UniProtKB/TrEMBL annotation:
It comes from Methanocalculus taiwanensis. PANTHER family: PROTOPORPHYRINOGEN OXIDASE. This is NAD(P)/FAD-dependent oxidoreductase. Pfam families: Amino_oxidase. Coiled coil: none annotated. It comes from the Archaea.
């Protein structure tokens, strides 16, 4: 059986890997490099992900895939710190003592917040799919705790759509990030970057005879005599890892669109640590971006010879106008850097960075096999609900491959 995989991100590569040993597989990827949202910039001295990434202690499928690629021993566990920038000052909120010292909440509010977090870890996301995170927080904590603690988090992840996000996403987020010690959150990062995982998958796929076509955006696909024709080539079936609306447009099938958002992420190098040792800073003050992530406050900067910073913003329809210059100008002013201290910078605009987990999202997810011979999987799949991750994308890829193999035996 000849299978076409549309999209060379983590879900597509994983699905292709599981199928290529027993079937002929072709991957069509619109970008010039593989990896999708896990792709990297190749700089002169090192490679770095174009969008920030780390993993969590419960990511078992990721660990299995790393072991399969002989990379698991290079996964290291580091301490992730967090903070809020409010009133032009960064407040660290990593340790219990730092949270106790946070001046924008009273001691009683901090106790309420702590009990809320503990209780949310055991909450059932399915029950909360119809409740907004905003209402969930305000009902249990009040406006002040919500606006000073949770609203910046929602803004950094969902931008102007923050008020639509379900409480299912919030409690899942709290649960997945519950591996904490006195010194901070335990986060995983692959030495040398996740480009090593992508390259290992490409090497394995090439060894099985899988054909990988980079720079190939799919224009059209249609059913034909029990199979599918994709850009003039006939296949027995298709796996699309694109958003449902993109798959519907290309394949002319009735798939209900899901709420998606785009990302504008500026990555830069600088000799200065702009966030005072803190890995992830959410913007509590008004800013043209939602978060500043200093990668080298998670991974030691001496591995790179400089600090690496991500400036992250999400959008619904189109990216902010002239966002590269706007981000740079605001960042330098707000964090006290001179423009010449920005050694390099790259902007990535990703129109379909991921779904927005609005209320009712669980009922919107499409079937994985909506029409004969067409299979769909990716960030929108049940495996990535209600929080997308590398783990979820690997699960989605492996599970859709299993469905294809079962279908091929019918």
């Amino acid at each position: 059986m000849h299978i076409c995989v549309i999209g060379g991100g983590l879900a597509g590569l994983t699905a292709a890997l599981r199928l290529s040993e027993s079937h002929e597989v072709t991957i069509l990827e619109r970008g010039e490099v593989a990896g999708g949202c896990l792709s990297s910039y190749n700089l002169p001295a090192y490679a770095i992900e174009s969008l920030y990434h780390h993993c969590f202690s419960g990511d078992d499928r990721l660990f299995s895939l790393l072991e399969e690629c002989d990379l698991l021993s290079d996964l290291e566990w580091l301490k992730g710190s967090t903070g809020y920038l409010v009133n032009q000052r960064i407040y660290p909120l990593t340790t219990p003592l730092q949270i106790l010292r946070y001046p924008l909440l009273t001691l009683f509010e901090k106790i309420r917040l702590g009990l809320f977090v503990l209780g949310s870890r055991s909450a059932d996301p399915e029950v909360l799919d119809s409740v907004t995170a905003k209402d969930y927080c305000i009902e249990r904590l009040g406006d002040r705790i919500y606006s000073s603690f949770f609203e910046p988090l929602l803004s950094s992840k969902f931008g102007e759509r923050k008020d639509e996000v379900s409480a299912a996403w919030l409690v899942s987020r709290i649960s997945i990030r519950s591996d904490r010690g006195p010194g901070g959150e335990r986060l995983g990062y692959l030495k040398g970057g996740y480009i090593r995982l992508i390259n290992a998958l490409l090497s394995k796929l090439t060894a099985t005879g899988c054909r990988i076509e980079m720079g190939h955006p799919v224009v059209s696909a249609y059913p034909d005599d029990g199979g599918w024709v994709v850009d003039g080539t006939r296949y027995d079936c298709i796996i699309s890892t694109l958003s449902p609306q993109e798959t519907a447009r290309i394949c002319s099938v009735p798939l209900k669109p899901l709420p998606y958002q785009g990302a504008a992420c500026l990555t830069l190098g600088t000799p200065i640590d702009p966030t005072n040792g803190i890995y992830w800073v959410n913007m509590g003050d008004p800013a043209p971006y939602g978060a500043v992530i200093t990668h080298t406050n998670l991974v030691p900067s001496d591995r790179y010879g400089e600090h690496i910073v991500y400036i992250a913003s999400y959008f619904s329809d189109s990216p902010p106008e002239n966002c590269e210059n706007v981000f740079l100008s605001d960042f330098c002013t707000r964090f006290g850097l001179q423009r010449e201290q920005i050694l390099w910078h790259h902007l990535r605009i990703e129109p379909n960075a991921g779904p927005v987990y609005v209320t009712g999202y669980k009922t919107m997810m499409p079937e994985p096999n909506p029409v004969p011979g067409l299979f769909i999987a990716g960030m929108f799949s049940i495996e990535n609900y209600p929080e997308r991750s590398m783990e979820g994308s690997i699960k989605a890829g492996e599970d859709i491959a299993r469905r294809v193999m079962e279908w091929s035996y019918i």
